[in-house]
Specification:
The chain has about 350 residues and is of the alpha/beta class. The chain is about 45% helix and about 15% strand. It has helices spanning about 1-15, 50-60, 70-75, 95-105, 130-140, 155-160, 170-185, 190-205, 220-225, 245-265, 280-290, 330-340; strands at about 25-30, 35, 45, 65, 85-90, 115, 230-235, 270, 295-300, 300-305, 310-315. The mean pLDDT is about 95.
Length: about 350
């Protein structure tokens, strides 16, 4: 009933075009991570190919596809925002950005900005939240109950202690609670690795196969740029810039930009803060490092007069736009994006 009601509202508001998705005086920057997985087996942070293509079709017909750079530049220069502007961005640098997202973007005549974690590109490592997902999924598949978690940090231990991997929602709940607990510790990325190894010991799971979680290589990044896509920085190690020492934050910003400029042979001046974590000191460091605008994870539209180093984005998530049939609905997608674009 809820999906049916939402579909009806979406059809009235969006389908009739009486309710513009992006209102006057604002722009929308969408935040993606991956295009991967299936409806039956979703991957963390991913939308499926079918969802992404439906979203591109909708944006092409109902909005004005615009580069994130153009939106940032309008804010910086005090110029009017392009009417109905929507920009697409991707964070991190997963390989499917090149192999799956790029062909669809080209097919629909659209572009995107890819914010890359340079120390991860062309590596064999998995990002920490993907490791958590795989350990929890393996434990649930094998029916393993967590043990020996008493010595872990309190929020992590509490998540494992309350886990019920035999219930239908148990694995997803545990994964969500573990990710939230690990984020709350505000450790640098390298500080999370031994902690996740201890979680794996408690779950009795093996190190996962990184195949479906691999990053792009530098050749793919260069081809991405040659295809008309824009590239920005997402730091070196995905460190939370507001939570690490100033010297570390400076190096993350400067070295990431330096690496991208070396690989691409051009100026890099856009930044996306990992996990949106920033403060006044981080903004000053970003300016010193040569960036001209930066995007957060705070939800909402971009408006004229915004701080160009705190530009909001709207996260897009897999399975979040179900219509009356329980499957992806482009009109529901438009309705929800439009609602978030009207946030004060």
């Amino acid at each position: 009933m809820k999906n049916m009601a939402r579909q009806a509202v979406a059809a009235l508001a969006v389908g009739t075009r009486l309710w513009p998705v992006v209102g006057t005086g604002r722009a929308v920057v969408l935040r993606y991570h991956r295009v991967a997985g299936t409806d039956a087996e979703p991957l963390p942070l991913a939308v499926t190919l079918r969802e992404f293509e439906g979203q591109l079709r909708f944006l092409r017909s109902h909005c004005q596809p615009t580069a994130a750079r153009e939106i940032a530049q309008a804010v910086t220069e005090g110029q009017p925002l392009p009417p109905g502007a929507v920009a697409i961005t991707f964070d991190d640098g997963y390989e499917d950005n090149f192999s799956v997202a790029l062909p669809l973007l080209k097919k629909h005549g659209m572009s995107a900005t890819f914010f890359l974690t340079t120390g991860w590109i062309e590596s064999e490592r998995m990002l920490w939240w993907d490791r958590v997902h795989e350990h929890v999924r393996q434990a649930a598949r094998e029916g393993i109950a967590p043990t020996g978690h008493e010595t872990l940090p309190q929020p992590v231990a509490a998540a494992l202690a309350s886990a019920n991997l035999r219930s239908p929602a148990g694995p997803a709940t545990l994964e969500h609670e573990l990710v939230a607990a690990l984020r709350s510790l505000q450790l640098p990325p390298e500080g999370l690795d031994p902690l996740i190894e201890r979680i794996a010991e408690c779950l009795g799971t093996d190190e996962p196969d990184p195949a479906q979680y691999r990053p792009m290589n530098w050749l793919q990044v260069r081809l991405l740029r040659q295809s008309g896509m824009d590239i920005g920085s997402h730091t070196v190690s995905h460190a939370r810039l507001g939570s690490v020492p100033a010297e570390r934050a400076h190096d993350e910003l400067a070295e990431s930009r330096k690496k991208l400029e070396k690989e691409l042979g051009e100026k890099i001046d856009l930044l996306a803060y990992p996990a949106g974590d920033h403060n006044e000191d981080v903004t000053e460091l970003a300016v010193e490092a040569g960036y001209e605008a930066a995007f957060t994870t705070e939800t909402g539209p971009v408006r004229q007069g915004n701080d160009p180093f705190a530009l909001r984005r709207i996260g897009v998530w897999g399975g979040g736009y179900a219509g009356a049939t329980g499957r992806f609905s482009a009109q529901v997608f438009g309705l929800q994006i439009g609602r978030l674009a009207r946030r004060p």
